[in-house]
Amino acid sequence: EIRRVAAEPASGPQPVGDSPENYGQWKLVRADGTIEDCASMPATAYNLFLMRAPYRKLLGPSEGGRIDGKNPYAQVWIHPTEGEAFDLIAGKPIPGQGVAIYNTDPAGRSLFEISTEVLDLIAPTAEQLLDESGTNPWHPYLTVDPLNMLQEFQR
Prior knowledge:
The protein is about 25% helix and about 25% strand. By secondary structure, the chain is α+β, with helices and mostly antiparallel strands.
């Protein structure tokens, strides 16, 4: 489970153009209920990736059976600072078809297909979000033109 919570305003002088409402802290909630602060850079990269994650195609309601809601292959709970919490629920990867994923966001529920590579980035390991010094697996997707990225994943 990943949450973004409002942070307390930083004490002391703040950079010009920055305001306290721009600050937030991502939290990782483990299955046992333990809550840890995510490292700033990986959490920010993950957030930006989610906003532009490439997908292969939208799926129709008839393909919803590709996801086992009671036993999903992967599930990420997102708790934004504002708005309702939602899930990203992934089905089991199917060779040659990719992965079906259901976005339960009330602002735009959708069912779509992604690659297994993208699934690994949507459902990262805890270490990827907690280690500030680790590699940034989302970086290639944040520096590529979205149209070129989409064409690459539609192959």
